[in-house]
Amino acid sequence: MARLPRLTSAPVLAGALVVLTMLAAGPLRPYDQMFQGYWAKRYTPDWWLFLDTVPNAIAGQAVCLPILAAVAIFIAWRHRTWHPLAVVVAAEIGFYAGIGGLKVLLGRTAPAVGEGSFLEGGLFSYGWYGMAYPSGHTAEAVLIYGAAAYLLLYYTGPDTRLRRRLTWLVALIALNAIVVAFYLGYHWPSDLVAGLLAGGLVLRCIVNVDRAIARRGLPFGWSYRLPQRSSAEPEPARDTHRPQPLPVPAAIWLRTHPFDLPKPAVTNLQPLAADWSTLVPGQPAPASPERKVLTPR
Fold it and tell me: Which ranges does the record mark as transmembrane (predicted)?
């Protein structure tokens, strides 16, 4: 895992994408035509519609974008910051401008309308079938779900187990996109591999820019911080007790009333003595309890 960041760096991914594009335009074309086929309709025709509407749709915008938006909105509300929403916007711009622009620029025909030649397709000539390279679903599986995993890791701390689980989850989603698209026959095999590289490259660029902004800060003094939630301060409780008179210190009372001190009465004083203690003069002695003598019968 220590070599993984180097293998997924922007220069490595960009170089691999350029090399693969050159190979796909020449030496790999016979192999693309050899391995491409509508395998689902040939071997499992009853499952073709299910594979197209369920597993293949996992990497589509209708599924992955709401998941990324839900993760970003929850984190933004929890941490009171615009940062997750900015990552969502950057991922969408990167997909449509970066990967979409690459698809339009290269103009490779899909298996349904051509032989996989570059610069022979195009949006106006064949529509979506004229922009097969790189695969959009495979790129979205890496870019969109990778952005969601990045946000979760960014705000939960360096948890090794969570990082490993999210990495495997994104890898499984990307593998699902490749296998299903290949089995359905929508793309040439090199399109699917190029989608992985293109999605990873855009994601790496977003992560690098985001980390640079985190170190240096936003320009013009901008901030990601959202205004804090206004909490209504509780009203102070009303004092319903009656005010008590303040005690007068003894020294002040003695100075102001020196002759009003109460005098203790010495008449009718009863000594504090218990029945079993010393006899009090003038009072009869308490009777001792009688003892019962037990006589044997």
Answer: 57-77, 84-106, 126-154, 166-186, 192-209
